[in-house]
Structures are given as C-alpha cells and as structure tokens.
Amino acid sequence: MKGNHIGELEELVLLTVGALFEESYGVSIMEEIERQTGRSLNISAVHSVLKRLEKKGMVKSKMGGATAERGGRRKRIFNLTNLGKKALDESMEVRSQLYNQIPKVSFNIG
Amino acid sequence: MKVTPPKWADKFLAWYCNPELLEEIQGDVYELFEKRLEQNTARAKRLFVWDVIRFFRWSTIKRTTTQNNYLNNTIMLGNYFKTGYRNLLKDKVTTTISVLGLSLAVGCAITTFFCIDYFIGMDAFHLNKERIYQVINVVNDNGHHQKYSDVPITLESKLRDIADVEKVTRIEYGNGNMRYEDNVFSEFIHFVDPDFKEIFSFPTKQMEPDALSEKSKIIISDRIAQKYFGQTNPIGKQVSIKFKDDKILAFQIGGVLDKTPPRHSFNPNVIISIDVFKELRPEEYESLSYDTDAIFVMVHDGAGPTAANDILKATVEEQNNVQANKKVISSSLLSYNHVLDINYEIVGSIMGGGHPAGRIALGVTSILLLLLACSNYINISVSSASKRLKEIAMRKVLGGSRGMIMRQFIIENILVCLIAVIIGTFLSYFFLLPGFNMAMPVEIPFSSYNMLNNVLLYAGLLIGLGLLSGLYPALFISKFQPISIFRGSQKFGRKSWLSRILLTFQFVIAFFTIVGSFVFTDASLQLANADWGYTPNDIISTPTVKNSTSEALYNKIVSNSSVQQAAKSFGHIGPYNPLISARYGETTVQTNSYEIDHNYVDVMGLEILEGRPFNEKGDYQKIIINEKLVRKMGWDAPLREHLVIDSTRYDVIGVVKDVVISDYYGGMSPMLFKPLHDKEPNYITFKTQENASMKAMSDLKGYWKELAPDDPFDGFYQAKIMDSFFDENQMNMLIISFLAVVTLIIASIGLYGLVAYNISRRMKEFSIRKVLGANLFYIIKLINKEYMWLLVVALIIGAPFGVYMMNQLIASVYPDTTQMTAYPVIVAILIIMLSFIITVARQVYKVGKANPVNNLRGD
C-alpha cells in the first residue's frame, strides 16, 4: 500500500496544491504553507515533496507562463489528480472518523 | 542598479542541476531572491546561496543526460577507433612523423627510466634496508665540512650497548694473497663482525651457520669460488692467506655467496671475521684513534636512530681528544638509502653509485625529448585538422556535442600513443638498453626493481603522453562552430600563436641539448688529451713483497738493458695514494702522501716548478708539494713554508705541477712527497727505453716468478691507470651525443611535418605566383619567412642556456677543467642550421619542380 500512503508534510503540500488551484508552484506553495501554518520550509524541501507526490501520481504538472521576476523562467504548475484528491479524501475521512469517535468524557478530564 | 544573486552560486546551480529541472528550480530561487531583496540585500544573497546548496541533492544532480551519453559512448567507442585508424592511414606522412618522433622519444624515456631506476633501486635486495644505518662523521676539513665513512673502530662497543640497536658490524678493508694449491691471487678482503650476515641480505649458495663467528671460517663470493675451485664444491676447502708482514693464516671456506643481484653497490669477495684483523694488528684494533672503513648498524623493528645518535653525539669530544689532527664536528647514523643518495659526498664511502649529475642530465634530456615529441605531435595534429574540418562540422550539425568530439580526438590520440609506446618499447628493448649496457660496466635489466614502477611507467607514458599531446588539439578542434566552417570563414593554423610557441620551444630544446652536448664533448675531449702532469708512457710499476725480495727485484730491474731508470717508493701515484693529515699553524689539511727515493721524480717525469727534487743523500725532514696543496694553503712563497706531520716539521723544498691520480672527478688532489728512508718501499717504478716496455714487462714477470713464486704478479703499465676513467668519459660522450642526435632528428621531423603541411596547403598560392612570374627564390623566401625568425629566437634563448647549464654540470663534476671555447657552440649551431636547411630544402625543391598546371587544374 506504499503508493497510497502519504506523510504529514506530503498531505500538507497536497492540500495547498489543491487550495491554490491554478497558481500552485514551488514558491507559492511554500509561502502559502508558511502563511497558513507558520511553518517555514526550504524551497528545496517543497520541490522534493512535489516530486515525490508526482511520482506517486497524486499531482500532475505542466509548465506555466514566464514572469519577469523569475528572470524569464517558466513555472511548473501543479494540479491535483483524481488519485491525489482521493488520497486527501481518504485521509480526511480517517481523521474525522477518528475524531468523531473521541468520547465526550475525555474532554472533561483534560 | 539591478542586484543580481551571487554569480558563482548561480553557475554552480546551473552546473550540477539536471537540465530538465533547471528551469523551474532556477525560476523559484530567483523569484524568492527578488522577493527577499525588498527586505535586505545581503540576507537575500545569503539565502540564495543557502537555497542553491540545499538543492544540491541526489535527485537534482545531473544524471539522466550523462547516462544517455554513456550508452551512446560505448556504442561509439568502436567507431572512434575505426575512424581514428582510417584517419591515421589516410595521412601517412603525418602519421609516420608523429609516430616516429613519439616512438623515439618513448624509447629513450623508457631506457632512461630503467637506467635511473637502476641506480635509485640500488641495494634494494637487502631485506632490512630500511633498518640499516651507517655511522657517518662530519669532519672539519679546513673550514669545509666533509662527511667521512671512516669512523673510530671503538665506536662499535658503544653502539652495541644501545637498546634500540639490534646488530652492528664494522667493515675493515684489507689485502691478502690467497692461495689454494697452485692458484695464488691478491684478494681484497672485508673484515667484518659476524652480524654482517644478518644485516645484509646477500643471497647465499651455501652457508655454514658458524661461518664468520668461527674465526677460521670465511665466506667467499661465487666469482672467487669459480676462480679457485672451478666446478668443485668449495665448502670445507682449506685456503691460506698471506697478509702484510708475511703472516700466513689458514682458513676454511664456510660459505659461498650466490651471484648478487645486478643492483648492488658493494659486494665483498672475501669476507673474514674481524677477529682475524684483531689478531693481525692488535694495537690498531684496540686503539682509540684508529678509524675503521665503515660501521653499519641495524636497529630493531620500529626503532629509530635517535638513541644511537645521542650516544654518538657524546663521543664527538672523546674522538677529538684522541685524534688531535682531525676535528670531528658531528657523528651520527645516516640511513642506508640516504647514504646511497649522497654517496659521492662521503670520503671513503664503501658503496658505489657515483655522481648523480649524469643521471640528472639523462633524466632531464629524456623529459625534454618527450616534450619535444609531444609538441611536434600537437603542432602536426592541429595543422592537419583542417583536413577534417568538414567532418567535425558535420558531426556537430548532426548533434555531436563538443565533449563527444573531444573524446573522439583523444581516443585517436591514445591510439597513436599506444603505437608509439609499443614501438618505443621494442626500440628500447632491442637497441637502446642493450647498447647502453654494452657501453657501461653495469648490466641494467629491462625492468624495475619494483613491479609497481613498471606499471607506473607504462600507465604514465600512455595517459600522460596521450593527454599532454592530445588535450590541446582536442580542445582546439572541438571548439569550432559548424556555421563558420561551412561558411569557410574558420581561420586557424596560419597565424596560430600556439604552433609558433611550440615550434620555438622545440628549437630551443634542440639548441639547448645540441649545444650542451657539444660543450660536454669538448670538455671531455679536452680531458682525454689533457696533461696528466707527468708522462705515463714507458713507465711500468709493480707492487713489491716484503724483505729481501724487493731489494733483489730492484737490482734485477736496474741491471735490465731496456730499463732507463728505476725508483722505489712507499705509495705510488695512481694505484696507492695514502691520505694523511698535515698541520700548518692552526690549519689541518688532508693530503695524499708519498714517500719516494731521489729517482722517483725523474722516473715519473714530475715537473718541478719551483725549488729542487730530493738529492741522493735523502733530504731529512724536507718535502715536495704540489700546486694544489700550495693553493689550498694559500701560500705565496711555498719554498719558505713548512708543514707538521706527526709532530715533525718538514720544510718545503720543491713544488711540482699538479698530477692526476686516476680520474678528474672532484679535481686535483693535494699531494706531498717525503723522502723514503728506513721505511720498506711497496712499489718499484721504472722508466724503460722507448718501445721497450713490452719486453721490460715480460722480463719483470720473469724476475717475479723467480723471486716471489708465492705471490701474485701485479705489475702494470702506468699509462693504463686512467683507462677506467676514460672508458667512462667516452661512454658519457657517446650517450650525450646520442641523445643530442635524437633531439635533432625529432626536431627536424617536426619541422618537416609542419613545412610539408604548410606547403601543401599553399600549393595553389605558390602555383599562381609561379604562373604570374614569381621565381623560385621568391617562393623560398615566402616559405622560410615564417620559420626563420622563430629559429633566431630559439637560438638566442636556447644556446646560451645550454652553454650555461652544461658548464654548471661540468664544473660540478670536474672542478679543475679548462675553460670552454667558442668553437663547440659554433659547430653545434652550424649543424642545427644545416639539418634544418636540408629538411626544408627537400620540400622547397618539390615546390620548385611542381608544374603549376597540375595544382591549378580543376579549379
């Protein structure tokens, strides 16, 4: 089941890719994660996670348009694939399922 | 101004990054950089670098493309060899020139390598070589620090007490007449301690365990065994040896050494326990002031010489107290290898080796030869690449990368080098090394003492030569842009500065070696014809035996009709030159000393420059000295001076011209002559009538048989004593001239190749000029213009350099030679010029003969 399992960071990146939709590429993903979670990542880490996800077939990519601030270089735009979407759904489902199983009492004890 | 990220980091990224990923990665880091720039420039730069470094990971590093290339390469490899092979065949002249030049140089290099290796690997067969040390004293020789192999015989017991020292042996030289049945010969003897057997690893044929430790059991070499016993087993045989003072002792052969490996610097023939020496000369054996010829020490495994050095240091004062006339400055252990290296600096060194100047000269010349051949090759291959321009352009257009083209050229080049190395090996194996061995007294094997060296030599030759000669052409050719080649605008070769520099460099080397070899040959010839300081012709000399025999022999010689005049002496110039120290005031001087009768000066033909020879009565306490001693003492009026020898004052009554002893190495020796009084002479020297020396020699042999049948006859012609030096001298001349000739040949064929190429390229131009009325002379001028000034520049640089270096070398080997003359330089230059003219003339002749129609037809 290796192909379908995703790690915590992978999940985070996958979510961001989905959220950013057409504007998801290396830098924007990195910045979005930082903005939303306060976690600062190195760009190379983002790249390697994206590459891993692409290998697993959870994202697909195409080259986007060039911008001046990138020295005329194009971006690689990432999109969720169905598999990626499914993986996210599954993981969310597992989470909420588990979350819902938490008995109310446990909150009182805390 | 726009701030850009650090260039090097950017380049680094572009270098390592997989091209497929480069764009997005670069884009991202640039974008980040731009954003960060708004806050802080320095920080942005720092972070940029950090990002780039973080990206340097396995997944981003270039791989995919090289993998493709690699596959492509292995497929192409065969093709490269095929095209390379075809190209070589297509251009036969060029190939022959390149291969020939390279092969010659490689052959010389291999030969030289093995020669130098032979001397460097000297005595490598001693298994414990790394643990062997020799005691070396540094002695003050009139302000000049001189290393001595001779050290006090008593040091041995001190060294034995040191914990780090495992074994000690003294080596004391001696002579004796060894006799087995009817065979009597004078033999050179090594008196040694029993440890000698364990310290040195001379291979043995047979060895009884108690040889040497048992006083009467001696060890002989294979050569001696053959000489006395032929094929019979010598072990246990009884021989007698007659030593000085007519003492005859009996010995039993306890061991036989096998043939020593060819790389030995000393190999004793007759080895006797030093206890015998103790018995023969007890006073000297016990004496604190007696110096033995050498002491060797073997330290324990892992131990060093430090402990022994401390003890030796402490003995310096003690030594100086006993030996008043020799001031020891330091005494220490030198490792065997080190002693071998500086062997020529050590007085009385027991190891061979000789002066390294010859080896250095040989090594330098063969490296120069290799460079020469390489630059030839570079020149020729760059020039001839023009014929392949279209091929290169086509490959590039079809997608060949620069790297691929470079690879192709380097592979072709290694092919050429491979052929050259094979031919060179053959040359060296069949001609050069055998030639060298024939001329030298040594037998140098076609192999190193160390297998690794063989491998290194060949790997070095192939890779070094291949890269050295192939890298530049490959870089140069692969750089061309196809578009400019097809357009026809690619210019090169004609005005290439590199080819000019290389050509000049070749000529510089040619001038350097040839002028150098002429200067050397000149000096050697001067030595061969130099005045010996006396006339050795018609002089015969013989060592004598003790007692009445020598007197009887003298009387017989004097009465012989073919003998003009005879003299007796203790010590004799050439074969027996005892070294003593004499004092003058505070200065001590080491000098050869001879005790002679009143006839000696006349018989030897020594030239008296000042003063007078000894008179018949025998001048008591008078000496005659030579010029060198006068110079050494710095005397203006030597006849008014004196020297103190063994606390006796001797007045100088005459000065003789300098005399050569047996070679010119190290210059003239200081000499002094004392009158021979009550001392027993050990040489009789006589001058024969002209052309009567052969008869006198056979008469002398007859007298000897009659008077001393128990002793070997060792009479000799005085004229022969320098033979070994002259043989060596002639050998050096031969080798150096040979190398010079090879240099000239390589330089000439290089020039030939280049001129041939240039002429063939400009054939159309010359033809048009001819059609339009240019005469041959004008065309010759056109061809030569390019090379003439290169030659002149090379001459100006190379010739003086060669003269200077060779003079330095000569001065270090023969300090007393006469000044060089201008003529060797002139002759050398003429020879080079002539050979270059011949080289070029053949081709110019071709141009002159060629019919312009043939060259212009078809255009």
UniProtKB/TrEMBL annotation, chain A:
<dbReference type="InterPro" id="IPR036388">
    <property type="entry name" value="WH-like_DNA-bd_sf"/>
</dbReference>
<dbReference type="InterPro" id="IPR005149">
    <property type="entry name" value="Tscrpt_reg_PadR_N"/>
</dbReference>
<dbReference type="InterPro" id="IPR036390">
    <property type="entry name" value="WH_DNA-bd_sf"/>
</dbReference>
<feature type="domain" description="Transcription regulator PadR N-terminal">
    <location>
        <begin position="22"/>
        <end position="89"/>
    </location>
</feature>
<dbReference type="InterPro" id="IPR052509">
    <property type="entry name" value="Metal_resp_DNA-bind_regulator"/>
</dbReference>
<dbReference type="Pfam" id="PF03551">
    <property type="entry name" value="PadR"/>
</dbReference>
<protein>
    <submittedName>
        <fullName>PadR family transcriptional regulator</fullName>
    </submittedName>
</protein>
Automatic annotation (TrEMBL), chain B:
<feature type="transmembrane region" description="Helical">
    <location>
        <begin position="497"/>
        <end position="520"/>
    </location>
</feature>
<keyword id="KW-0812">Transmembrane</keyword>
<dbReference type="GO" id="GO:0005886">
    <property type="term" value="C:plasma membrane"/>
</dbReference>
<keyword id="KW-1003">Cell membrane</keyword>
<dbReference type="Pfam" id="PF12704">
    <property type="entry name" value="MacB_PCD"/>
</dbReference>
<dbReference type="InterPro" id="IPR047699">
    <property type="entry name" value="Permease_put_prefix"/>
</dbReference>
<keyword id="KW-1133">Transmembrane helix</keyword>
<protein>
    <submittedName>
        <fullName>ABC transporter permease</fullName>
    </submittedName>
</protein>
<dbReference type="Pfam" id="PF02687">
    <property type="entry name" value="FtsX"/>
</dbReference>
<feature type="transmembrane region" description="Helical">
    <location>
        <begin position="456"/>
        <end position="477"/>
    </location>
</feature>
<feature type="transmembrane region" description="Helical">
    <location>
        <begin position="96"/>
        <end position="120"/>
    </location>
</feature>
<feature type="transmembrane region" description="Helical">
    <location>
        <begin position="360"/>
        <end position="380"/>
    </location>
</feature>
<dbReference type="InterPro" id="IPR050250">
    <property type="entry name" value="Macrolide_Exporter_MacB"/>
</dbReference>
<feature type="domain" description="ABC3 transporter permease C-terminal">
    <location>
        <begin position="738"/>
        <end position="852"/>
    </location>
</feature>
<dbReference type="GO" id="GO:0022857">
    <property type="term" value="F:transmembrane transporter activity"/>
</dbReference>
<feature type="transmembrane region" description="Helical">
    <location>
        <begin position="733"/>
        <end position="759"/>
    </location>
</feature>
<feature type="transmembrane region" description="Helical">
    <location>
        <begin position="822"/>
        <end position="841"/>
    </location>
</feature>
<feature type="domain" description="ABC3 transporter permease C-terminal">
    <location>
        <begin position="364"/>
        <end position="482"/>
    </location>
</feature>
<feature type="transmembrane region" description="Helical">
    <location>
        <begin position="787"/>
        <end position="810"/>
    </location>
</feature>
<feature type="domain" description="MacB-like periplasmic core">
    <location>
        <begin position="508"/>
        <end position="698"/>
    </location>
</feature>
<dbReference type="InterPro" id="IPR003838">
    <property type="entry name" value="ABC3_permease_C"/>
</dbReference>
<feature type="transmembrane region" description="Helical">
    <location>
        <begin position="414"/>
        <end position="436"/>
    </location>
</feature>
